[in-house]
Amino acid sequence: MTLARKQIGFAMTGSFCTFQTALATLDEVIKQEAHVTAILSYAADTTDTRFMTAEALRKSVSDLTQRPIIRTIAEAEPIGPQKLFDILVVMPATGNTLAKLAYGIVDTPVTMAVKSHLRNNRPVVLGISTNDALGNNAKNIGTLLNTKHIYFVPFGQDNPMQKPKSMVYVKEFAISAIESALDGQQLQPIIIGA
Asked: Distance between CA 12 and CA 44 in Å, rounded?
């Protein structure tokens, strides 16, 4: 399915080292003529890091989408009742966010956006980026893999020798994963080997 004219929510959480990759995907989605609204977690919205300042992230996202950013729980809550999006993408999705989604915790704009969006049985795509995917978060990923209307961008270990439990989504599969999710299909394989 094409992304042209689709209403897409694009949420970013605090995996700061993958922001440039996520922004490149956001740019690709927009170039496919999708209408995109960004959503930032509190960590992504307010934390300055060696990778990017919060202000620079907000400016980059605003420049790409040309729309106001959803930055609060109150702003995210209408996503479901107003059926704002055809699909919601969370990229990067941190281990913290994965755990909250698996347990139904709603305490950030991103977790509220997912909860609100899912009430309409519409797809959510997760682009994971977590240092404990094969550790404490393995059970949460398993739960989400078995949750209706949640799909994953294929992912793999990003540095198995130095970070043996870390996994990150593969950017090259992001657009295909979003398109597949719009068709109700999980892009395969989910786990990409080295």
From this structure: 7
Q: Which two tokens stand for residue 51?
A: 């990778």
CATH homologous superfamily of 7-182 equals Flavin prenyltransferase-like (3.40.50.1950)
Give the start-to-end residue ranges of the domains of the chain.
7-182
Q: Distance between CA 51 and CA 173 in Å, rounded?
A: 23
C-alpha span between 77 and 54 (Å, rounded): 23
Residue at token pair 């347990």: 103
Q: Can you tell me the distance from the alpha carbon of 55 to that of 75, in angstroms, rounded to the nearest whole number?
A: 19
| pLDDT tens-digit readout, 111-168 | 999 999 999 999 999 999 999 999 999 999 999 999 999 999 999 999 999 999 999 9
> What is the Cα gyration radius of the chain?
15
Rounded Cα gap, residues 26 and 38, in angstroms: 9
Task: Give just the sign of the alpha carbon dihedral 167, 170, 171, 174.
Answer: negative
| Burial readout 38-75 (b: 16 or more C-beta within 10 A, e: otherwise) | bbbbbbbbeeeeeebebeebbebbeebbeeebbbebee
